Amino acid sequence: MIGPRIGYALLLLAALGLDLFCGSVWTLALTLLLVLTPLGCIPLHLWAVKQIRLRLDAPVNLGKGETGTLRVQIENKTALPLGLIHVRLRLSNLLTGQSELRHCRLSARPRRTETAEYDLASAHCGRIAIEAARCRIYDPFGLIGIRLKQTVLAQTTVQPKGFAQTIFISPDANCPDDSESYAPDRAGYDLSEVYQLREYRPGDSLRQMHWKLSGKLDRLVIREASLPVRRSVLLFWERAQKAVPEGTDAQADVVVTFCRSLLEAGVQFTIAWNDATEQRCVSQQIRSMDELIGLLPRLLSARENEGLSGAELFLRSSGEAVLSHILYITGRVPEQAYLLGQFGRLTVLSCGASGDGAICFDCEHYAEQLAELEI
User: Fold this and answer.
1) From edge to edge, which strands make up the β-sheet containing 280-286?
2) Strand pairing class (82-93; 99-108)
3) HEC states along 237-275?
4) DSSP 334
5) Fewest CB atoms within 10 A around its CB: which of 8, 40, 95, 287?
6) Topology of domain 42-159, per CATH?
7) Following CA atoms 205, 208, 213, 217 in sequence, which dihedral angle do they give, to the nearest 10 degrees?
8) What's the rounded Cα separation, in Å, for the pair 331 and 349?
C-alpha cells in the first residue's frame, strides 16, 4: 500500500502548490477533492463491507513440488465499485511449522464476483492452512481501510512423493506363523476365527454371512474376521522433538511409504503418533488404501511438540498390547523408545541421529537407504 500513498502525497503537494501560486477556484476544488475523497469513502465502505463476501478456493491435494492454483474470490453485492481491496494471506504448514505471508490486491465491480488466481506450491509435504488474516477495503488512494470481519480459511494437503520399497516381515519368535493368538481389540482378515458377530452393513462380503444365525434371527448377521497376532504391526511416528523442515519432510515421506508398502504386502496395521495439543497417543487402524488416503490430512497435520515423548505416552496408555512388530520412526531416539520392545519385535528408524541398534537414514538419501528393509 506504500505506492498509492506516495502517489497521493505527491498529488496533494502538487495541488497545494498550484493553489498557493495560482489561487484559482479550480486548484482549490482539486485540493478539497483530494482531502475529502478518503473521508467520504468511510461511510460508503462501512455499509459496503457488510455486503461483500470473501472466499478462498484451494486444491484438495497437491504433490510435493507441484504447483496448484489458489483462487481468491470477492463477491460484491452492492452497486458501488470497490477499486482497492487488500487481502493478507497467511499460509502455514502444520507439519513443519513453516509460514509465509502473501499480499493480494483486488477490485470488485458492482454486483459482480471477481476472482484472482495465484500459484500455490510447497517444497515440503504437510497440511497447508490458508487464512485470510486481514481484508480491508480502501479508498482510491489507499489511505483509510475498513476491515472485513470474516474468518475465511482453506486447506490443502501436500502429499509425499514416496519411493520404491520392498519390505520383509520376519516371523516373531514369540508369535510363530502357526500361532493361534489373535488381536483382542480389532478385526482382521482371518475368517477361520470369529472376532465378533454384527448386523450386515452395505458393502460387507457375502463370505462373512452367518446364514444359520441370520435365519434364526430373521435379520442378516455377519462374522467379522480376526487379526492374527503375527500380522499385528504398529507403525509409530515420534513427534516430540524439534527438527528442521527437511528432516520432518523426510520422516513423513518414510512413514507414508511404509504404510503403502505394508498394504501392498497384504498387512493390516495400526499407525500412531503423539498429539502435540492433548499430550496423548493418536492411533488409527489401516486396512485399505482408502483408509490411508482418508487419514493423510490428519497425519500430515501432526505438528512437532516438546512434551512427553510418544514412546512414554504409549507405555502409559497401552496396557497389555498384543503386537508382533513395532516400527518406530523418529529423529533423535528417546530413552523410552527401546522399552517398546516388550510389546513386540521392535525396529527403530532414526533420521539424522544415531542410536543403539537403530537404522539410520538422512534427509537426502533415505529413498536408497530404505529401499529394502526387514522388520
Assistant:
1) 280-286, 269-275, 233-237, 325-330, 345-351, 359-361
2) antiparallel
3) ECCCCCCCHHHHHHHHHHHHHHHHHHHHCCCCEEEEEEE
4) -
5) 40
6) Immunoglobulin-like (2.60.40)
7) -30
8) 8
Helix (H) or strand (E) holding 55: strand 52-57
Which amino acid type is present at position 326? Answer: I
pTM more than 0.85? no
| CA distance linking residue 49 with residue 148, whole number of Å | 6
* Distance from chain centroid for Cα 61: 10
Partner residues linked to 136 by β-bridges? 86, 147
List, for residues 290-300, the tens digit of each pLDDT value.
Answer: 999 999 999 99
Name 339's Cβ contacts closer than 8 Å, sequence gap at least 6.
Answer: 311, 315
Cβ count near 272 (within 10 Å)? 21
Higher-pLDDT residue of 34 and 260 is 260
Q: Where are the domains of the chain?
A: 42-159, 229-374
Report how far residue 98's alpha carbon sits from residue 128's, in angstroms, rounded to the nearest whole number. 9
Considering the four listed CATH numbers 3.40.50.410, 3.40.50.2000, 3.10.105.10, 3.60.21.10, the one that applies to the domain covering 229-374 is: 3.40.50.410
